[in-house]
Amino acid sequence: MAGNSFGTAFRFTTWGESHGPAIGVVVDGCPSLLDLSEEDIQPWLDKRRPGQSRYTTQRQEPDRVRILSGVFEGKTTGTPLSLMIENTDQRSKDYGDIVGKFRPGHADYAYERKYGIRDHRGGGRSSARETACRVAAGAVARKVLGDTITVRGALVQIGPHAVDRSRWDWDAVHANPFFCPDPEAAARWADYLDGIRKAGSSVGAVVEVVASGVPAGLGEPLYDKLDGDLARAMMTINAVKGVEIGDGFAAAALTGEENADEMRRGPDGRPLFLANHAGGILGGISTGQDVVVRFAVKPTSSILVPRRTIDRDGNDTEIVTRGRHDPCVGIRAVPVGEAMMACVLADHLLRQRAYTVR
Ligand SMILES: Cc1cc2nc3c(=O)[nH]c(=O)nc-3n(C[C@H](O)[C@H](O)[C@H](O)COP(=O)(O)O)c2cc1C
Question: So what's the pLDDT on residue 90?
């Protein structure tokens, strides 16, 4: 199946299905001599791991990563890194009903039309189980970025309920099960999501990812713009239906003077931006400000509420998706968005080194 690789200089390729024996990722282009061990990757996978609260799927996967190649005596060798994660809690029988029926809103119908065959168990290759591989690649990308570039994500909206940005607290993000930066919103979301879960329904969300410490100059005009690559990266995540950079769609409602990020000479003699409507990118190239990306995640399509659909023979029928599903997949999309941001930045950092002399 083509289309399983992402990136240019820092390039990863994922493989595997939701209910196969294992999933994995090959990372090519990682520079040599970086310190890298399984312990560097595992914490990021633990953050995405299912079954950690009642608001995510109860599938229990330890998601233990194994490095199969590309590391010698604790350092990357510059050869392809191969990372593998075993699937241990598949329960394929849960998916009996979707053998012959298509879940509305899921990839079943499209995969069947394209390939004429599909691994229906948990969605096979279209399952977001694959995103664990992206998170593993993202952990390697963070090594390439080093300590001066940080990538952090947060959930800023669940259903119609957005955070109050005046209460934004990065420390709060890991103190609630939603990666929510606003503790008061998190408390309200808990009740709201309990209701959604008990109703056998699901709800969408908005994720924001912010990269700080990004040097000015990353991004290749014109067709490999940094914002273009970020938009593509986020759109490749399962269930993502919209991406914004900086003010995004809200910029359409601004005047030119409101939208322009004015500049002054800063106290240290370096340029100081007075705002960041652009999300840290101008002309497809980073400015040194925070790089800000938001993406909208649709509601989980596998729900307990019966939905009308057709079977493989084209007959009308109904479907109820049992199995174990996240009532809001946006929650676990936060570490996935962070990983994709890290991979795009690592890719452009390496390209910047290749194409410029300063
Ligand atoms: C972290 C994460 C977990 C997901 N878990 C589920 C799930 O349990 N059930 C489901 O129907 N969809 C789930 N999805 C979404 C599907 O994978 C996705 O909707 C499907 O592949 C169809 O692709 P599309 O929505 O991008 O068109 C999840 C998405 C993410 C990001």
Answer: 66
